[in-house]
Amino acid sequence: MPEMRPIREDLQATLDARRDLGPEYEAALVESFVERLDATIAARVRAELHAHGAGSGRSKNPGAAMIPIALGSMGIGIPLTAIAVHEGGGLGLAIAWFAIVLINVAAAAAIMRRG
Prior knowledge:
Elements: H1 7-21, H2 26-51, H3 66-114
């Protein structure tokens, strides 16, 4: 895994850039940070799965396949919540989390069918 800047440094850099560039660049800065956060979470999940031997072949426990999906949902859900509330208020928040829940339910159903 290539050495990555700590996510805290990325967040601080994003906040500094937002302060320097102004609110018109906020959406692009947030999207860039979310992509780096997602990559960091994915790398950590892969490392954990590899450390526990879950990265190769099929797991005997189909529920174990939900771990990366759940962690990814939490990682994406936090910044998505902030964006949804900022842009759409309560309705935006409800739509964002409804979509996250729907994706998780669909993924769980697909995993259970395979298992």
